[in-house]
UniProtKB/TrEMBL annotation:
It comes from Acetobacter vaccinii. Keywords: Cell outer membrane, Ion transport, Iron, Iron transport, Membrane, Receptor, Signal, TonB box, Transmembrane, Transmembrane beta strand, Transport. Belongs to the TonB-dependent receptor family. This is TonB-dependent siderophore receptor. One of its GO terms (biological process) is siderophore transport. The keyword Lipid metabolism does not apply. GO terms for molecular function: siderophore uptake transmembrane transporter activity; signaling receptor activity.
Length: 844
């Protein structure tokens, strides 16, 4: 076979000869498949090393038999490969910068010098192109398939609504420390509304995150969650933002959209990774992520991800500490049946969340410099906050035949949260512009959720038309006992510029028997049960895909409250049982999308939403009507043929009735603002432009206004701290704290090895537009622009003895810009200053 080429005596044979045959390749490296299914996406974990060693590991992990002419690969080194991808994509990353490329001819992959001017493309076997795992990490900055929108394995270009994926590679390059930070470059998503006051790593990502102007809802592995564990990126494989209503498949979701997060699970190929991290504010972190088989055949596999971290913050007396572990095991019972079990425990004794700041000294000038970010405006002896989170989940799948499949996911989770802190008492005037009053309070809860999603799905054909159908049922039982207490008798004054001046005089009193206390406490028990039945049909004829679906929801909830007062030694108590009649709703959606052969896919869709406002009442104790919404969306998706470049553009119009806003007349309560209208457009790009250059970019325009409202309000002057003029109707006014314009771009470039072996750089820019502070557009929080910068170095590129070792540094807010994420008429939320984070990672 090799005599004519003269390379037979130099070849090494690698891989599984039971699956693949060796063929000649005219002086190249040949891979000859026997079975089409072997081109499915796989987990690849190959460290940077000598090229022959990397190709050896590639052959083993891909299940390929490979022939290597030593003269072609001698002295060359490879790039590291980590993630779920096809063998051809893995091979392309390995060869990046080696001067070699590959070509495909008659189902045979051949390595040749790059000077041969070969057009690259995916490996085809039997006319099939390998697909990505729809819940996996993606390839580079691009994910092409998803489960999030339809609960079926579907290409993104066949779904008629907006879906944006934050891949594992994006998170690795940007080094976000929570899910809010991971969403900074996602179209239509304003992830950090409350800045460092809502951006603590211990909080779940839905805290302060807005999609198309509406609060988001978070799902893990397809089930709604309220656990703070969802914010831990060390446990996350990928994040998806489904913009627009998703109630048909998920139930109670606002029309702005939902977040879908996939946790790490056992991989098909071994994975061994550990890292040590460091950063400013005294950050130290250690993680490990290990996956391997437990049986010789590999039908039982495990994975363990863990993290330990401690750090301070930009604000004095605010710290963040966490330890957590996520073990999982997968058992392929037979070729049609699999079971995955996951568990999680996380202890976070300090959540790293700071408080709000007064508007005077931040947004508006009080004759002095701005209040420093380091100023702790609170009670140093009364500022603890932390979580304990536990979770168990199972995922079961069984394929009866090619027409019917069964899937079930169950999760139980418990989250305990305890907090002692203080808040800015805007109703107390001190007579000094730089002195404010702070009221101590405490809060604790122990919430438990049980969720189950069961569905049958499959495929069939009616003549030339193919159908992918789903019928399912999900339920969620949520118990949320909580207790909070306010010390209304202590008026603690704090100087914003010299808080230490008042620290020694601060006090708090929470006794219901002491005559010196004036305290108020409320013990509540909220229980919530939701059940939903849904169906969906994805109809495909040639390039046309039609999506039809509907859902019926039933919701029951109850809320009991026991309120205790102590007015200077006189204890009083009231009981309040605020129940509600059961609520139900039918939601539906329809859409179509057409895929042209050259990659363009125009689409149009209509969808509705339903969210019961369980437990929310107005100041009279009356429950609010459920939120109901509808959306029209039209757009274009363009996938470059044979390239990992995905462009999207969409325009949307959303109406939602019974939108809640803060009741400015009755503090602490909400008011029904009537109808709001959100309309705008989004454009985005996710691209692996070359093997060494990756990019994400987006622009979002969101105009959300009160469309129909009977509510009126006066405008506010923050300098005089007074309202002025006649009361104005809120109808037609902008909804506060939602930026109209957002733009972002982030790119990572690995420098060619003949210039700087193993070295790469990345750079990002984020623009967030101005937001209004109240419901009648009194004044604005200004826009801001932030820059991010990073670098990475692969030691294995220069020394085979260091293969698998990589160093990385990421800097967010490079210029240390002082900015405000949002303000109300009284308080503002500070953004994060310059954050420097670096780590050393070793893969073996």
């Amino acid at each position: 076979m090799g005599a004519k080429s003269g390379d037979a005596r130099m070849r090494k044979y690698i891989g599984n000869s039971k699956v693949f045959l060796l063929t000649s390749a005219l002086g190249g490296i040949a891979v000859s498949p026997l079975h089409a299914q072997t081109t499915a996406a796989k987990e690849f974990h190959i460290p940077a090393q000598s090229l022959p060693a990397a190709l050896t590991q590639f052959g083993r992990q891909a299940g390929l038999q490979v022939s290597i002419p030593a003269s072609l690969v001698e002295g060359k080194t490879s790039h590291a490969v980590n993630g779920t991808m096809s063998p051809s994509q893995s091979l392309a990353q390995i060869l990046s910068g080696t001067g070699l490329t590959y070509r495909v001819n008659a189902n045979v992959v051949t390595l040749v010098p790059a000077t041969a001017n070969i057009t690259l493309g995916p490996v085809r076997v039997g006319g099939q192109i390998s697909k990505q795992d729809p819940t996996g990490p993606g390839v580079g900055y691009v994910a092409t398939t998803t489960m999030a929108s339809t609960k079926t394995d579907t290409p993104i270009t066949e779904i008629p609504n907006s879906i944006y994926v934050v891949t594992k590679q994006i998170m690795q390059d940007q080094q976000p420390q929570n899910v809010q930070q991971a969403l900074r470059y996602t179209p239509g998503v304003f992830a950090e509304t409350f800045g460092t006051a809502g951006n603590g790593a211990a909080k779940g990502p839905s805290n302060g995150i807005m999609q198309r102007g509406f609060a988001t809802t978070e799902f893990i592995d397809g089930l709604m969650t309220t656990s703070s564990s969802a914010g831990e990126t060390a446990f996350v494989e990928r994040i998806e933002a489904v913009n627009g209503p998703a109630s048909v498949m998920y139930g109670q979701v606002t029309p702005g959209g939902m977040l879908s997060i996939d946790l790490k699970k056992p991989t098909d190929t071994p994975l061994h990774s550990a890292s040590l991290g460091f950063g400013n504010w005294g950050r130290y972190e250690a993680t490990f992520d290990i996956s391997d088989k437990l049986t010789e055949s590999g039908n039982v596999r495990y994975r363990i991800a863990a993290i330990g971290v401690t750090q301070g913050s930009q604000t004095n007396y605010i710290d963040y500490h966490r330890v957590g572990v996520l073990p999982s095991i997968t058992w392929d019972i037979d070729r049609k049946t699999s079971l995955t079990l996951l568990g999680m425990y996380m202890y976070t004794p300090g959540d790293g969340i700071s408080a709000e700041y007064p508007i005077s000294g931040t947004l508006i000038s009080n004759g002095q410099t701005r209040i420093p970010r380091s100023a702790f405006l609170g009670l140093p002896g009364w500022n603890t906050a932390g979580n304990k989170d536990a979770m168990f989940e199972y995922q079961f799948k069984h394929n009866f035949n090619k027409y019917i499949n069964f899937s079930q996911v169950f999760r139980w989770e418990n989250s305990q949260y305890n907090m002692k802190t203080s808040y800015l008492n805007t109703g107390t005037s001190t007579g000094q512009s730089n002195v404010t009053a702070w009221t101590p309070w405490l809060f604790n809860t122990n919430q438990t959720t049980s969720s189950l999603d069961t569905r049958l799905f499959g495929k069939f054909k009616t003549g030339p038309v193919s159908h992918t159908w789903v019928i399912g049922n999900d339920f969620r039982n949520f118990n949320y006992p909580q207790y909070f207490q306010y010390d209304l008798g202590s008026s603690n004054l704090i100087n914003s510029y010299n808080p230490q001046e008042y620290y020694s005089n601060l006090s708090y009193c929470f006794s219901f028997s002491s005559k010196s206390c004036f305290t108020f406490g409320d013990r509540q028990a909220l229980s919530y049960f939701q059940d939903g039945l849904y169906f969906q049909d994805q109809i495909k004829w040639k390039g046309l895909s039609i999506l039809l679906g509907g859902r019926q929801d039933w919701v029951n909830y109850s809320r009991k409250s026991v309120i205790n007062y102590n007015i200077y030694g006189t204890k009083m108590s009231t009981n309040n049982d605020a129940g509600s009649e059961p609520q139900s709703a039918f939601t539906w959606r329809a859409g179509l999308i057409y895929n042209f052969d050259f990659g363009l896919a125009p689409y149009f869709s209509y969808s509705t939403s339903f969210v019961p406002q369980a437990g929310s009442t107005n100041y009279l104790g009356q429950p609010f009507a459920p939120l109901t919404g509808k959306q029209f969306e039209a757009g274009l998706k363009y996938k470059f043929p044979h390239k990992d470049i995905l462009l999207t553009a969409s325009a949307f119009h959303i109406d939602e009735d019974h939108y809640l806003i803060s009741d400015l007349t009755h503090s602490g309560f909400s008011a029904d603002a009537g109808r709001v209208v959100s309309q705008g457009f989004e454009v985005s790009a996710n691209a692996n432009i070359t093997r060494d250059l990756r990019l994400v970019a987006s622009y979002s325009y969101t105009d959300i206004r009160f469309g129909k409202s009977n509510v009126t309000d006066q405008r506010y002057n923050p300098y005089t701290k007074s309202y002025y003029g006649n009361a104005l109707s809120e109808e037609g006014m902008s909804v506060p704290q939602v930026p109209r314009n957002m733009f972002s771009i982030f790119a990572d470039y690995t420098i060619p090895q003949n210039v700087a072996k193993g070295f790469g750089l990345n750079w990002g820019l984020r623009y967030v537009g101005a937001t209004y502070v109240d419901n009648v557009e009194s004044f604005k929080t200004p826009s801001y622009v932030l820059f991010d910068l990073g670098a990475h170095y692969d030691f294995g590129a220069v020394s085979s003895s260091l293969r698998g070792l990589k160093a990385q540094i990421a800097v967010s807010n490079l210029t240390n810009k002082y900015y405000l994420t949002a303000c109300s008429t009284a308080v503002c939320y500070l953004g994060q200053g310059r954050r420097v984070y670096g780590n050393l990672t070793y893969n073996w």
